[in-house]
């Protein structure tokens, strides 16, 4: 994240640090030193301090009295809980998206599906993982369900490490791809019931895979 200048506002600093955590620039339990962040981002210590308070409220950062802040580590059990909440919210967004999707958005979603197929064929796990996130993000945006979208953005940021580890499992892409394509096809067809069920089926699979890790 070094050298990423941002506006000297708590919101801009929070956005930059949040993005760095999601990318994995900062790992679980890594200390977030105000002076270092201030220098890296070209922001004031006050803006950094306020941003860390915001990120603590989102569950991304843990603030320890008299010791500063660190990236909060999300346990596997908590990752399962987050995925259970995602199931309810993502399925709502998929159903809403199927009701309001435009012709241009259909073309965009179909193109994402094609790129996901190509990534799996090439064995490109990182590329597929990025497309996975792009698809879910676009479905949330198309749905127009702002409250669900905002909640899901926070949950995704907390859960990104477990999601990527899951994607790296041998054979996982072959399971994940048809689940995502079913979501795309239901939205393209304008079928909210099928879109909701396809999303639920996908996230039930994610939850089962995470639970298998525990056992």
UniProtKB/TrEMBL annotation:
The keyword Phosphoprotein does not apply. Keywords: DNA-binding, Transcription, Transcription regulation. The keyword Manganese does not apply. SMART domains: FCD (SM00895), HTH_GNTR (SM00345). SUPFAM superfamilies: GntR ligand-binding domain-like, Winged helix' DNA-binding domain. GO terms for molecular function: DNA binding; DNA-binding transcription factor activity. InterPro entries: GntR_C (IPR011711), TF_FadR/GntR_C (IPR008920), Tscrpt_reg_HTH_GntR (IPR000524), WH-like_DNA-bd_sf (IPR036388), WH_DNA-bd_sf (IPR036390). Residues 7-74 form the HTH gntR-type domain. PANTHER family: GLUCONATE OPERON TRANSCRIPTIONAL REPRESSOR, TRANSCRIPTIONAL REGULATOR, GNTR FAMILY. This is GntR family transcriptional regulator. It comes from Actinophytocola xinjiangensis.
């Amino acid at each position: 994240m070094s050298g990423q200048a941002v506006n000297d506002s708590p919101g801009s600093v929070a956005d930059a640090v949040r993005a760095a955590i999601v990318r994995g620039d900062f790992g679980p339990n890594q200390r977030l030193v105000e002076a270092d962040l201030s220098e890296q981002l070209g922001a004031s210590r006050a803006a950094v301090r306020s941003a860390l308070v915001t990120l603590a409220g989102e569950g991304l950062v843990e603030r320890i009295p008299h010791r500063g802040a660190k990236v909060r580590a999300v346990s596997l059990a908590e990752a399962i809980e987050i995925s259970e909440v995602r199931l309810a919210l993502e399925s709502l967004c998929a159903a809403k998206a199927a009701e309001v999707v435009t012709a241009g958005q259909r073309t965009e979603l179909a193109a994402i599906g094609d790129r996901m197929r190509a990534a799996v064929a090439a064995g490109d796990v990182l590329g597929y993982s990025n497309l996975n996130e792009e698809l879910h993000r676009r479905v949330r945006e198309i749905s127009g369900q702002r409250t669900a979208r905002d909640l899901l953005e926070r949950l995704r940021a907390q859960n990104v490490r477990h999601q990527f580890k899951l994607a790296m499992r041998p054979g996982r892409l072959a399971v994940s791809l048809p689940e995502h394509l079913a979501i795309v096809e239901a939205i393209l067809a304008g079928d909210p019931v099928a879109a909701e069920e396809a999303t639920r089926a996908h996230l039930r699979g994610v939850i089962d895979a995470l639970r298998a890790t525990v056992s």
